[in-house]
Amino acid sequence: MTSAKARALSGIQPTHDSFHLGNVLGAINQWVALQESHDAFYCVVDLHALTVEVEPALLRKRSLVSFAQLIALGIDPQKSTLFMQSHVPAHNQLGWVMECLTGFGEAGRMTQFKDKSAKNGTDRTVVGLFTYPMLQAADILLYQPQYVPVGEDQRQHIELTRDLSQRFNARFGETFIVPEGYILKSGAKINDLQEPTAKMSKSSASQAGVIEILDTPESNMKKFKSAMTDAGREVKFDEKEKPGISNLLSIHSAISGTSIDAIVSEFDGKGYGDFKGAVGEVVVEYLKPIRARTLELLEDSGELTRLMKAGAEKANAVASETIAKTYEAMGLIARG
Question: Are 283 and 313 in a shared domain?
Answer without folding.
Answer: no
